[in-house]
User: Fold this.
Amino acid sequence: MDPFGAISLAGNIIAFVEFGIKVTTRSSEIFASISSETLANRVMKTTTDDLLAFNDNMRRSLSPYASSAEEDIASLARECSAEAVKLMTILNKLQGAGKQKKGGKLPPLMPALKSLWKQKDIEEIQQRLTNFRAQITLRLVALVNDKHSTMTTLLVELMNSNSKANAESSAQLQDLQVTINEVKNTVQRAARQPPQGTANMTPVSVKLEILAKLGDHAVEKVLKSLRFESMHTRESTVAKAHSETFGWLYTDDSSFSQWLSSSDGVYWVSGKPGSGKSTLMKLLSGHPKTGEALRTWGKDEPLITASFYFWNAGTVMQKSLQGLLQSLLYEILKQCPWLIPVVTPNRWGNAFNLAIEDPWSWQEATEAFGRFTRQTKLTCKTALFIDGLDEYDGDHSEMVRFLSKMSQSPNLKLCLASRPYNVFESAYGHDPDRMLRLQDLTRDDIRQYAYDNFKIHQNLIQLNSLDVDQYNHLIEEIVDKADGVFLWVYLVVRSLKEGFTNADPVSTMQKRLRQLPSDLQQYFTHILRSVDEVYWESTTKVFQMTTLAVHLLPVGVLTILDEEEADFCLDANIRHMSRMEYEKGVGVLNKRLNARCKGLLEIRATPGHLYGSRDYNGRHLVDFLHRTVRDFL
Assistant:
């Protein structure tokens, strides 16, 4: 289970049993005293909601790993969940009976229960609840005494770390140890009572809830130490795949599909610039069929998937192995928090004090990932999707060696994507069953993309049969000239759609297509030459700023493009903008940028939380249409 999953689950069971016994016995004075319709309905709704919450928590607390004692508690949780459903059904009927009475008041609880249940049914449910209480006490005793329990192991490790902690941490850990011992003693006392005893287990439930919250806090603290503000920025800016494209990857005879479901090691996606590698990797890492195939590979083992996108134009963490490791560790431990004490024991031990965590060092990150790949106690199957190896800002041979070592684990596989550099060809290009060359396989996808973008245009509907034939030839010509480069197709389709807007005949569209360079670099030159001369100076400014910038520029820098006074910044009226003013300003700046750069630079909206703020300011950044544009400049 996760570090405190067994504790939390046991607490839920105790709370449910105590509530259930109160509902079904005559000792429930709280219901006997109810006379107000409003109060009665409120109590009934609260108790029903509590049961629903208990039921949901029990289901969510179940996890892949468990000792025998933890499995017993999980089994008891499933039985309690079934019993909770029965109780909720009865309570709903009881509430309905109350509404049907004149005045809407609920009848006294026990007579109402007897009217809905036979006496035998009441006795049976009371007996089951009493048995649940006896069983949970015995199983909690087994849990706290079980040396193989994940919970016990973690608590022992935590208490052992006491000697290494500072004075503040030591006091907190001692308090935690006292709480643990109190739970253990209370449970053991309850277990010594006769099975039919009516000892109140509520204090145990409260203490277990405290321990569970401490565990949740520690998990969040470790995860927070791994996060960095630009962790998901690149992925958020990668375009989504066009619908009905890349379906061929999941056919039975696809080498990728076969690798997903049966092989380990490395699968390499090679592609020339602009062929759509990042878009493909974004699709693969989140596609339901990827998960289905990986579950075939993993059999009954828990499955972890994580991804990372190198980005040469981004921050240091976005183009370094340090960023790669922290991002992967974050995704892995977020999905499987029970691995935290195994992967990073020092961080776990320190997570229970108030000290500020130091940043992760390269040594700590590599050691943590090494523990993850080597650990055997809590095995799981892991698939990692890493895009943009060529955008790593370091020695590519060093990275290949690092990834090779990582892929040696039998429980881990890597799907990698990059341009076809020699270093990657030598490392991954020798096995045709473990690689694909993207530009050689996307003709049908390009055809589908062009067809779908053209068919929605209103003027296309008016084509006669002769024009339709020419239109189909136009699409085939696009496919042939593209040579697998999706970025070129995107630019060409955007240009040709202007012809549809102008109601150009297909013959004119063909002439327009044939005037466009088939080489991507030459196409960029063609686009820049179409910029109005009046904008040339500001076009030069914005390209210089974006190519020299260490990070992506906030959209506000575009306001200086047409400033002619050298000291305009000193005279500017600086004030806070409302959301409406900000969004209106972004719209204006987007039009100016399009006029000056013709789509080679874009304003991208980025979720504010990625930058550690919920404020709307700073969410829009100026970025290149594609890395190939930056390379061209």
About this structure: The radius of gyration is 32 Å. The first strand starts at residue 265 and ends at 270.
